[in-house]
Amino acid sequence: MALPSQRNEAGFGRWVAGALAALCLCSCGDPPPPERIVLIVIDTLRRDFLSCYADAPLPTPHIDALARRGRAYESVSAAYHQTSMSMAALFTGRTPSIERPEGGPPLPWTGQTWCGMARFAAPGEGLCIPTGLTTLAERLRGAGYWTIGVMSNPMLFEPSGFGRGFDDRSEVGRRPPEVGPLARYRVEEAWRERTWRHVDRAAREALARRPRDRFFLYVHYMDVHDWGYRDGPYAQSVAIVDTAVGALLSELDAAGLLEDAVVILTSDHGEHLGETHPPDPSRVMRSHQGNPSYQELLHVPLIVAPESRIRERDLLRTQDLHAEILRIANLSAPSPDLADGELFVGEQRFLTYRRGRFKSSFERRGGREILFDLLEDPREQHDLAGSRPDLLEEHRRQVVELQRRLGGAARGGDTLSDDDRSRLDALGYLE
User: Is the pTM of this model over 0.90?
Assistant: First the structure.
């Protein structure tokens, strides 16, 4: 795709007018589903680096333009700090969990558990997303949408279950070698083969193959995730992917495919960029490893255009987005497994819980506990655990209940396979 030039917003007039007309056709109930749903996921994108949300280091004009034509949602939380977990939540509507029903240590971290859906797996089943769960793509395909998936994160590559339901699926970037002398897969080489240009080329080719204009398009960009391998700061990679979004939307608009379309842009999780927090204020947080998951990892963007039927909530979680996309298509959604406004993130070392403005984290072994008031202290600098033991105890009881309710059994062994290791290595997670 050619880079978009600076253009006025009149080019999207047909899209906005068509969407408003569709809304006006129904005076009661939900409006008819759109002909096209476009889901853009920008891996590792922080909301405060988008200029439609904050005073960002660099402007993001194309994403800002999308927000002006629709809505930028404020209170949105990733389900987890890792792609496989958060995308599993988006694809299935379920809360990811590596808990055991009886409590205790978490499930082993393997390619069968790192989607957080082990509790739904049948005996002997090794898929990250078990076959017993119906995916977003399967539901939309059943509703008559031609489903296109363009995936560039190796954790989403098959065999995993993430490809289930896509009529046309592209895996962008070299697949990590499984065994042998090339098993050490260098991330310095990997990122060069999954840039936005590669992703957009795959999207354009997939769109050219479509048999009809009623489609669901899912595009996953890795440029921000790979910022550390580029010669530039994090903000520069955000600006690069902003250009990618502009290119994709311009291509769709030129083909008339933004008419009667809903575009959704979000992130799977954020990134630590040198922040410090209690309980260890000397620990400088970098990357997105979590443990615990602070807000720079969880507070993610969500932009929907034109302003759609996504409902305003006190807290909209990744798994809620699954339900909202189904509602856009006039499809029913699975019952949620968390209460409205409730968030649970069970990590290898910490258990994090949020309800309303208060968020707590409990260390599994060391016994450290922290509590934040996100309304008064959004940067999580002031630990209230000592002054609010009543609230901390209430959260602790709920965490124990959620461990029981969301617990499952490990399938497929307790160690990382060669394929697991190569996927993690391709993302820079292994030394």
Answer: no
